[in-house]
Each structure stands twice: as C-alpha cells, then as structure tokens.
Design goal:
9 strands; globular; about 200 residues
Length: about 200
Amino acid sequence: MRARKVLIVGLLVISTVIMFKIIINDYHTNSIKAEKKKMITLINKKFDDTVKQQEIKGNSIPIKIGTKNNKKVDASIVGKIIIDKINLDYPILEGSTEDNLSVSITKFHGSKINSTGNCILAGHNMKDGTLFGKLRTVGKDDSIWLYDNLGSKKEYKVFSVKVVAPTDVSVLSQDTDNRCWITLITCSNQGEKRLIVQAKQM
C-alpha cells in the first residue's frame, strides 16, 4: 500500500514537471515566433517605405537584423516575394548566410530580381509553416510575385515542382531562353533532399 502511494506521488511529481516544461517551452517558442513576425513586419515596412519614397542608393536596402544569438548584424534587402496560395510575404535578403536564413528568404545565386536569367532563392523549411515551410503545397500554374527595389512587381507561374539530391546543380542553370525565371529551394526529407519550385515570368 505504501509503495503504491509513493508510486502515485512520484507519477504526479513527474507529470507536473513535464507539464511545466511543456508550458515553458511553448511560451519560449511563441515568444521567438512573435519576435520573428515583428522583425519581418518591420523589414517589409522598411522595404515598402524605401521603394515608395524612391530613396534607394544602389541595388539594395541596408538594414540590421536580429539573430538567434540576440545580436544585430548587417543585411541588405534586394526584393520581396509573395505567394498568396500559402500566405507567404517575406523580404528577400542578399546572400544565404545562416543569419539571413534564420530570418527570411534569401537570394542564393543567379540573376537579379526580375531580370533575365534564373534568380535562385533559398529559405528554411520550417516545421511551423513559416519561411518555405508550406512550399510543398505549391503546384503547377500557381502564381508567385516578386518585387524588386525599384518597385517593379512581376508575376511568375510555376512550371516545375520536384525533389532532387543536394548535389544536383542543374537547377542553378542560367539557360532560360532569355526569360525571367525564379527557382525556390528548400530542404526536404529531413535535409536529405531539396524541394525545387521553378516559375517563369508571365
């Protein structure tokens, strides 16, 4: 009987500790999500205001971004991507550094935004659906909108969705028949493969 009471008390203590850890973890995760959302909103506002006021000096908009280590680092906005189907609206940061990738979608390689050639954009496939976390639901003929820093907005239609090995560099090709293409890249299968979405300007 005494052993049974000790066992029940022990289980109650363990359950309480686990519940407490879950609550703390959820609070921490929600705080991080809220901070990221706030940062993306501020970056998008900076992009929109700068383009509207035509204050761009050169091809990018300099900003400071917060990283997971709570430090501020320099970054540059080179455009904006919107995919209405998956409620995606992010600034595009120049360069696929770990700091940039932790915050937004990045320009990895290729032509400038909305220019002839293949503009390759990379983003993390987040489990919570942020960044390229919902990219797998995008299909052929879906629309993707890109804004460049001059305020030009162009629509692209998806023509290819595939999963490739990380070593497959054919998706980086600039052979686009003198058209504007975009290639979106994110991880798939726990990082073992890459999900590739390609679209052509309308």
